[in-house]
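Cross-check.
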Amino acid sequence: DSIVTSGGGTLYDVLSSLPGVSINADGGISLNGKNGVKVLMDGKPTYLSGSELLTLLQSTPATNADKIDLITQPSARYDAAGDIGLLDIRTRKIKLHGINFSLSGSGSLGRTGNGYMSASMNLRRDLFNFFLTASHYRNKQIIDLSIDRPYQNDTYRMEQESYRRRRQRSNFLYTGCDLYLDPRTTLGIAFRGNFWKQEEKGRMLNTVSAIALSALSLSSEGNDWSDFTTGVHFARRLAPEGGELSASADYFYYDRRRSQHVQSVEADTLKGDMDGRIHIYAAQADLDYPVGKNWKLHAGLKAAIVRVDNRAGYMRPIANAWQTDGSLGSRFAYDENISAAYLQAHYEVRRLQFSAGLRLEHTHVRGALSGNTLQPDSAFTVTYLNLFPTASVQYTIAGGTAVGLSYGRRIMRPNYGDLNPFVYIFDPYTSEVV
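Predicted model, tokenized:
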């Protein structure tokens, strides 16, 4: 905190440089070679994946983070979803009194290039701390795709060449205030928002030499994505025991709007309009309590309500007018309620550390998919109750080397965007689902 401007770049730059962490072009994060890492901020899920998560990391200044925890074996404190590990990004809390202000920026040039700039301000007084960070990020991408498709036992071949130019820009805002009610009690409110826009133009050429077919398709796409999180939090240190009681309530909102226009021969010309909204309400309470010199207990409760509504509609020119293509459209509504309670015990003496915990989660899921001319309506309801035990032991050998053994039971839940993915259509022969 004594160096307010320490670090540079974005969270994407920081994560990319961490040992064992890699990020691919689609926003997938792997830890020690394993894919499917969940990203948290201040111990809370971001509920983002793919390009949306990538955009958030590229828009958030690195100076916003105080530290990043690489958690390969999550304890019972964390949600049971995800079996690879967690990246917990901890927000920086500047402790210096007075006004602190910083500016940062970076850029790269090449065939495409990108640029980034941010401004941060912090005002700290005896009873309150106000903070504000704003940043702007933009980049250009060129995507080349070549496809060679043999068919009929390699007798014929279809060759495809695709070229897309993509422009992206995003604006990030993080602000809030902490009130220090007394030396041991803090009450705060925070808002985090990310607003992203992408424009893309592309072309795809199909060639089938055996029948002298050559067809060109042109496409354009607009993508607007916005997400914001707001919440209140409370923390009180317990004296003289040295523990802490904390509670928070948060609201997450994600809005994605996408339009697409593919122009080929008239029968294959297509317009698509897709939009999706996610509302998440979450509340949790945690207690950390030391017992004697060697033991510490952790306990907590959490509840989360998720509402997802995705729609997709497509139109084609028929009889000199745009008409709905009933074979492609869909609407997907999804509700998920999760309630959880956990208890964790930690023991440490000299070189030995031992931890064991148990998490109980009750999940109720309801989904409904509106059909089209090719598939009927469908719906499902699932309710289940699961126990998730965790245990670990670690012993430090002379010289700082540590050996350990851990056990944990987890569950895989799909990302909300994967439940009803949008379809990107290159041409009548090629599509991509994201």
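The two ends are 40 Å apart (CA to CA). Residues 50-59 form the longest helix (10 residues). Passed to J.P. for a second look.
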